[in-house]
C-alpha cells in the first residue's frame, strides 16, 4: 500500500474562485489523508460553503488508480441517491409554473397507470412519493432483478406490486417511487427527465460539468472510476446501470458544481441574485413531511424525519438536512445546516464506505465549534462475490428429480424466470442475469451469482419450490421482500 499512497494521497488542490480557508479547517487536509489511508480509499473530494462563499474545495488521491490520474474539485463522481433532491426540485418548479400540484395523484399524469389497490389510488400523492410516505417500498426484486430501460413500462408495473408498508402512514425508502416522480416530469413536460434536469437545474446553477449519462461523463475527461474492497484489497468495479431508475440516483457531479447546489438551498432558491428555484418548494422540502421512527428516541432523534429528498434531524441542537448516496464503486453525502448557512459535500470512489459521513461529521464539528469525536469506526463492506459451489445437502435432498423443477415461472410486475438443469445443477435464468441455485434443504435453494456477476446487489435470496397434490412443481417463491414473491409455473 505504501507505493499507492506515496503519491495517491498527496494533496491535490483545486481552489475555487475567491476561496479562503476558514481557520476552523486548519489541518483538515492531514486528517482527511489519514482517514483515506485507514479506509484504503482511492479518491475523494470535499467542498464546504458558508454564507454564499466556498470555504474549501479540494480533491485527494486518484480518480483512476491504474493511470495515477488525480482527483480535483471538478472531478465527476456518481452521487447516487443524492439525485433524489434534484428530481424533487424539478417537480417543485413545475408546481410553481402551475403545471401540476404536489398534492395531485400520479394517475392524473401517467397514462394507463394505477397502484395495487384502490386505497393506494385514492390516497397516494406526488408529495408522498418524495417523502417516502407512499408505502410502496423498495420493490427491490422488480427493480434489480427484472430491470427495464423503459421508464413508463417500469412504473406501470406498480399495479401488480403489493405495498410493503402502510400507505400514507409509514417511512419506507422507495427508488421506484422516485422513478414514478421522474415519469410524471416526463409526461407533464413532454421532455425526458434528463433534459429537465439539464435545463432547469444544471444550466441556471452553472453546474457545467454535471450530467446524467455515462456517455456525457466520459466526454468530460475528468471523471472517477469506481472501486470496492474485497478481503482487504482494492478492486475496480463497473458503473451501475440504472435502467429506468435514473431519477432515483443517476446524476454524476463534482464538489465544485455541488457547491452551487448547496448554496441555492441555503439561499432559499436564490442564485447569483436571481430566484432560480421556488422559495415555497425549498421551504417545504426542508421541513418534516414524514416522521421516521427511531428506536433510540433520544433528544437527538425526536426530529428524525424526511423532507423532499432530504433527511432531517436535530443534531447537537442544530437543524440538519442530509442525504447520502451509495452505488457500485461510489459513496457520498451532502449536509446542510440552513440556520448557520453551512453546506458540506463529500464524494468518494469507494463502494459501501462510511468515510464521507465521517469527514462531513468531522468538518461539521469544527465549523460549529463542537468537541471532536474521540474515534471513528473504519467500515467498508466488501463487494459481493460468489463463493465456491457447495454440494447438495445429503441429509435433506430434493424430494423430486431435478428435471421436475425445470420450466418457466412468471409473476406479473416482475417477469419470467426459466429454471433449467445443467450438469447436475439447477440454473435460474432471469431476463438480464443467470444465477445458480445452491441447495439448502429439500426443495429450498438460494440464488448465487455466476463468476462474472459484477452488480452492486447481493442476489443470495432463498428460493422455495412448492408442489401440488399430484407432486408437480407449480410455484417458485423468492424470499427477498417482506412477503415472498410467487412465480407460477406456466403450462
Write the topology of this structure.
Elements: H1 2-8, E1 11-13, H2 28-39, E2 43-50, E3 53-64, E4 69-70, E5 77-78, H3 84-96, H4 118-123, H5 126-130, H6 140-145, H7 151-156, H8 175-189, H9 193-202, H10 214-219, E6 226-230, E7 233-237, H11 246-249, E8 252-253, H12 255-266, E9 270-271, E10 274-275, H13 279-285, E11 290-291, E12 305-306, E13 311-315, E14 318-327, E15 330-337, E16 342-348, H14 355-367, E17 407-411, E18 415-422, E19 425-429, E20 434-441, E21 444-449, E22 462-467, E23 473-479, E24 485-489
Helix pairs in contact: 3-8, 3-9, 3-13
Classify the beta-strand content into a percent band.
25-35%
| Approximate shape | globular
Helix tally equals 14
Percent helix range: 10-25%
| Euclidean distance between termini CA atoms | 57 Å
**Structural class based on helices, strands and sheet pairing:** alpha+beta
From the coordinates shown, what is the CATH architecture of the largest domain?
3-Layer(aba) Sandwich
User: How many extended strands?
Assistant: 24
Count of discrete structural domains: 2
> In CATH, what is the homologous superfamily of the largest domain?
DD-peptidase/beta-lactamase superfamily
Overall mean confidence score, pLDDT: 94
- Radius of gyration, in Å, reads 24 Å
For the biggest sheet, the summary is:
10 strands, antiparallel
Low-confidence stretches: 1-19
Instruction: Quickly name the level 1 CATH class of the largest domain.
Output: Alpha Beta
What is the fold-level CATH name, i.e. the topology of the largest domain? Beta-lactamase
